[in-house]
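2024-03-11 09:14:02 DEBUG pipeline.ingest accepted 1 chain
2024-03-11 09:14:02 DEBUG pipeline.ingest length=457
2024-03-11 09:14:03 DEBUG pipeline.predict start
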Amino acid sequence: MTEQVGPVAGAGAGDSSAPAGRPGPAGVSPDAASSEAVTADAGAAVAEAHRREWAFVLAATARVVRDLDVAEECVQDAYVSALDAWSRRGVPDNPAAWLTTAARRKALDALRRDKTLRAKLPLLVEPEPEPGPQPPAAGQDDVIDDDRLRLVFTCCHPALAREAQVALTLRLVCGLTTAEIASAFLVSEATMAARVTRAKKKIAAARIAYRVPAAPELPDRLDAVLTVIHLLYTTGHTAPAGAELARDDLAERAIGLARMVGELMPDEREIRGLLALLLLTHARRAARLDPDGRLLLLAEQDRTRWDQAAIAEGTGLVLGALRGGRPGRFALQAAIAAVHAEAPSYEATDWRQLLGLYDELLKAWPSPVVALNRAVVLAMVAGPAAALAQIDELEAHDKRLAGYRYLPAAKADLLRREGRDQEAARAYQAALALAENDAERAFLAGRLAALGGPADP
């Protein structure tokens, strides 16, 4: 592919028209069909609320009880209760408020039960731990005034390993599945599940208090927080699996969090770099699919459909992120995105400038994904053969890309451009075997069919 790859970057069951007193389709009575329709509507509403509101509900509950395990369990129970209640009474006008109220009530009940147990059975429970850092007093945690962002900073606790901080935050706060997080980290789902479990056990064993970090503690957690927001956006920009190419709810949530972090710490250049990167990438969202839903690469996109307001804001932020010292990884990625955004056409892109920026990015962030993206740009400067040599070296020396779906896709495109059709077909087949997003699978199948391979995705 010639676009940057990887991170940057219900209807009811019944027939309502059936006459009263007559069975509906397949012998289902109107009352039964109506009940099934209500249940289906409730199930769809719960699923949508889980997708959109999980972070809000968990963060608001955790702020009340200041115990993430209790909060998570109670939020899960609230969603289970919602399915039953909404099936019987209908979906409320404000599902998020209903879920938050239910979760908080369950959490407070759990704390009261625990307090009662400790009062009545003091010899059968663990003694109270020695006093440690106390939660901030009322009003003291106003340094962060958004529950979701507060919980992101809280989960990025320095006592945990960096990957554990990020994975735990993505799982608990952002509501990503373990499979989605594993895809972002280039590891297996089982490996990621084990990491999340170990992180939660360490929190319990070390009695890490879930509290709002004080202002002086924020800078030490900033890089992990920015990494969480970046990976959240990446998952929304191209969904790892499913029928939709993107999940705009995740992408927009990431942009919103980046804006809030910028307001919280306005002097941090890397925050400006991250927000610029997200805006410049998101500006292309309307042009990524054709009217038939076919995936369009950067070379094929109608640039008049790009969001010029987002591009203007993003490029302005890039200038600020690059000033004042050596730029960080997000500022450099934003500069790369700005070069693409400002090019009048794909052919007129300044590929040599991009190659230089990737060289700097590799120094700041020696990631195999960055190296793969650099190879794609190298093909535009020195030809596909030079890029293929770089990819072969990556395959031989960095096994982290072994299951990364964009490596065989990029390799297939370069082989196709070299006229090595049989090798390109095998690479497209390998990419197709790894891809789970329907739009990406259809694109790869089309390329494979054009080379004479099987077209069925």
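2024-03-11 09:14:41 DEBUG pipeline.report The CA atoms of residues 27 and 190 lie 45 Å apart.
2024-03-11 09:14:41 DEBUG pipeline.predict end
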